[in-house]
Structure formats: C-alpha cells, structure tokens
Amino acid sequence: MADEVLSQFQQAAAEKEIDATKKLKVGIIGTGWIAESHIQQYNVMPDVEVVAMADLIPGKAEAFKEKWGVKGDVHFYPDHKSMIDNEELDAVSVCTYNATHAECTIYALEHGINVLLEKPMCVTLDEAAEIVKAEKKSGKILSIGFQPRYDANMQMIKKIVESGTLGEIYYIQTGGGRRRGIPNSTFIEKRTAGIGALGDIGCYSLDMVLNAIGYPTPKTISAYKSNFFGTSTEYQSEYDAKRFDVDDFAAAFIRLEPGKYGDKDGIILDFRIAWAMHVDTPGDTIIFGKKAALRIPSTDCWNGSVGGPMKIYHDIAGARVETVVPIIQNKGQGLFYKKVRSFLDAIKTGGTSPVPSSQIIKNQAILDGIVRSAEAGKEVDIVMPEV
Fold it and tell me: At residue 360, does pLDDT exceed 80?
C-alpha cells in the first residue's frame, strides 16, 4: 500500500541541452561570498560571457576575476550604476548586501536588463513593491535566488500537497536554524543586512512551505525577535558583539488566506528561525491536513534540503498508517547551477520567471510583518501593496 501511495508522486525529468549559438552578456554586482556561487556556474556555461563586475571596494572585483579564472575581457566598475550605464548587458546577478538589493535591481530593470536577485528579495515590503513595479514596467525577467526549489525532495513536498493526499491544509509548523551559526561581515549590521537570521535563512524556510501550498496571501502576524547571542561576548568577539544590531532569533504566528489548498478559514503558520540557540533544532516541519499530515525532518544547519526521509501519517481502512518517503538523490548539475540555468533559459526563450516576484513579495511581506510586530509588541495586519 505504501508503494501505491508513493507511486503517484513519481515524475521523470531530463536535463536540457544548452543552445550556445547565442551568447548572453552578464554582469555581476557585488563580488563577495555569494557571488562565488554565481561565477562558478557562469564559468561552465558555454552560452555566457561575464563581461563586467562592480564592487564598492577598490580592487575586489579584479581579485575576484583572477581567483575564479574568468576568461575574456572583463570591465570593472566602482558601483552598479556606472557598470549599467557603460555596458550592453543581457543580465546581471545582484549579489550585494541586503540593504542595496532594491536599488541595484530597480536600476538594472529600468535600463532593460534581466535580473537574478539573491535572497532575501530585499529588506522591507515597500522596497519589494518598488522592485515589482520596476519589473512590470520593464517587461524583463526577474528571478529571486531560492535554489532549494530545485532540490528533488523540496519538489516532492509540493507534489504531495498538490496530489490532495493531505487534504485541506489547516496548520503548518516550520522553521530551522543552527545551535551556533552566527555569520559575520555585513550579515550582522542593520545598515547593510537590514535583517539577520530572518533574511539569511528564514526566507528559505518560509519558501519551502509557502511554495508547496501555492503561496497564499498573509493576513496577520504576531511575532517576537531577539539577539541575545549576537550581542553577547560569550558567543561573539567584543568587536562583533558591539556592532551586532539585527535578529539572531525570531518566531511568529502567521494567519494565511486559504489559497488553493487550505481550509476555508485559512492556514495557520507557526514559524521560528535561529542563528544561535541552546538546542540543535527548533523542530521538524509538519504540514497538517484534514486527510493526512507530512513530517519533514529538520537539518542541524538549515541548508535548503531535508534532514532525512519524510513521513506521511494517514489512515487506510480504519488503520493508522505511516508512509516513509525516501530521500531522493538529486541528479545532474547542482542546485545553484539549476537556479542560474533556469533564469538564463527564461531569458533566451522569452519564458516566465522561474522564481517569480509575485510569490516572493509575499515572503517579504511576512519578514516585514515579523519585524513590525516584534518591534510593536502586538499583532499587525498585512496589507499587500498594489503593484
């Protein structure tokens, strides 16, 4: 019987052959750590020419080119505006710190350039709305950097929900984090990151479940956030503890509209995320449905996949049954490659965005609402902007 349940989710997928007859000219804005994952993919794609790089720190982009062996003539610029103003580009990767995601993306779109924007989309809901407006006006492709969507196990979660096996969804608990895992650099200051664990890994955790249930609209949020670990010299250097002014933990009770798969009264989302805590995990993700529930094991450090075989809890002929969903090994290229490749393919074929802003603006609305609620100390309404 378990095999019969699992068989309905099977789906074969084949990798497409790359058409290298048309080269895409790409620029990279921001040459820090996350840009390394982008350049590694561009370097192995025969239809891509990385022709320009921009970074605020003198010499950083030049060193980045040398480190990663980027071939061809690459032009270097001190900021995104001068690069965009002086280059003929098909696309850019926006790999800057969170606080500048919006301005870099909007400027590129306004100049007719397709954008692969790293997560989180930005810092505030207002910024997200301005990005979407610029995207719609430009007619260009904007895709947001959620590579976990290409993990076969993540796709399985979505298939299970869509199959109707769980029935109407009424409650979800999700989150993740690290017992000790506070990053440094620009991640821990509000002036550059805007938000902390929420933007770094919280957006991933939200996307995992929201994408599976069709991204219903959030209605209200009651939230809490703290930074006990980040500001403590027991866990941080004195220098980092003094400049730490973002969240290292957040929790929220979120009311969602029913959407396609929810109960008529809506879906409750119980969320928590942490960079540091006195436990190895804040708990597994569980999607509660009226016909069955799905347990998704957590990972020690939230890494965009699942921590072990998933399990469906359901009834068959009056008996309580548990169906194990084995871990699926990802085939072909890695998740980051698939993220970049799907973006480029959409440009070349005139297709739609692989990870559309129409979905991720709701993710951003939740992050924004968590911050507002936590700072106000009360529940807040979510009003989605007209874009």
Answer: yes
